[in-house]
Amino acid sequence: SGLFEQNANLGAEFLLSHLDYLQPTYELNCVDIIHDTSRLEAYKQRINNGQRNFIPLPFEEMNRELYGYQRGEELFLWLALSGLGKSQCIVMSMERASREGYRVGCYSPELSTERMGLRYDSAREHIPNSALNKGLLVPGYEKYYDNMLKSNEHIFVLDNASLGSGMITVQQCINFVKSNRLDILFIDGIVYVRPIGWHNRMTQAESMGLVGRQLFQLSKEYNIPVVCAVQARRRSNEKRTEEETISDSQSVFGSFELTQAATRIVSINRSASALKFCNVKSRYTKEGNSWLYNYDF
C-alpha cells in the first residue's frame, strides 16, 4: 500500500512480481470412493431397516413405484396450478407420516394453524372440511379429538402469525427442524421461503434456486426429506393441451433453477373428472410414470 501511495506503477510491478505468493489455497474435503466404506455401511443399514429409509406417500400406488419420501438428500416438489390439490397432498402426507410414528413439521404460510388442523382432521377421519368450517354438527368429532390428545403422534405447524412476517428463512427452517427433532419437513409454498444470504437485489429466480439448494443441504445434513408445494406456470406460448400444461419440470413458476435442485417432482393435472399425477423428475427412480385418480379432496 505504501508503494501505491508513492507510485501506482511501482505498486503494480511489485504485485505482478509476487503473483506466485498471492495464489489462494483451498482445502477441499474429497472422498476416495474406491477405498471409502461408508456407502457399504449405509447399504447394510438399509437391508436391516429398509422401511425406515422412506416415509410413505399417502397414495399406495405411487408408493410402489416411488417408495415414498427418501430420508436424506430429498427435495420433493408437488407441482400444480392453483386449486388442484398441492396443499391437500401435503396434508395427507403429514397425516400418513404421523400415523407411522414420525415427528412431522410443516410451515404453512397461507393457512393458520387452526385451518391446517381442520384439514388434518378431515384427512384423518374423512370428515367434510366444509362441515368443520361451518360449525355443523359432526357426530364423534369430540371423541376423536379426545383420543388424538392421548396419542404419541406429533405434527408441529408453523404459520406466519408465529413468525410475525410473511416469509420464513432457510435458517429458521433449520432451527425448526433441530428444535422439534423433525423426521420430515413440509413447506406449503416454497415461494414464501428466503435463502440464507438473501438481499433485495436478488431476482425471484435466483432466490428460489438458492432456496432449493439450501433446502437440499438441510435434507442431507439432518437426514430428513424436505417436501414442498410449488406453483406451476401456464405455458401459453406453446401449443399444449390442458392435460399437458404442467407435464414436465420446466413448468415450475419463477425458477428453473429450483427444478435442478429438486430430487423428485410430481405434477398434478386435471384429466376430465379425475386427477392425473405424473412423476416428471426423479434422481433415484424411473421418470414418466403416471397415476390417474378419481378423487375428490
Mean pLDDT figure: 87
The helix tally amounts to 13
Tell me the structural class.
alpha/beta
Number of strands: 12
End-to-end C-alpha gap = 69 Å
- Contiguous runs where pLDDT drops below 50 for at least 5 residues: none
User: Rough shape?
Assistant: elongated
Order of neighbouring strands in the sheet with most strands? 5-4-7-9-3-10-11-12
- Please trace the helix and strand order, writing H or E for each element: HHHHEHEEHEHHHEHEHEEHEHEEE
Largest sheet: 8 strands, mixed
Strand content: 15-25%
What is the chains' assembly state? single chain
Rounded to the nearest angstrom, the radius of gyration is 24 Å
> What is the percent of helical residues?
40-55%
Task: Record the SSE blueprint.
Elements: H1 2-6, H2 8-17, H3 19-22, H4 38-48, E1 54-55, H5 60-66, E2 69-70, E3 75-80, H6 86-99, E4 103-108, H7 113-125, H8 129-134, H9 141-149, E5 154-159, H10 160-163, E6 168-169, H11 170-180, E7 184-187, E8 193-194, H12 204-222, E9 226-231, H13 256-261, E10 264-271, E11 274-282, E12 290-293
Parallel strand pairs: 3-9, 3-10, 4-5, 4-7, 6-8, 7-9
Antiparallel strand pairs: 1-2, 10-11, 11-12
Explain how this protein is built:
The protein has 297 residues and is of the alpha/beta class. It is 40% helix and 19% strand. 32% of the residues are buried. The chain has an 8-stranded mixed β-sheet, with helices on both faces. A hairpin with a 7-residue loop joins strand 11 (274-282) and strand 12 (290-293). The protein starts with a helix and ends with a strand. The protein is built from 13 helices and 12 strands.
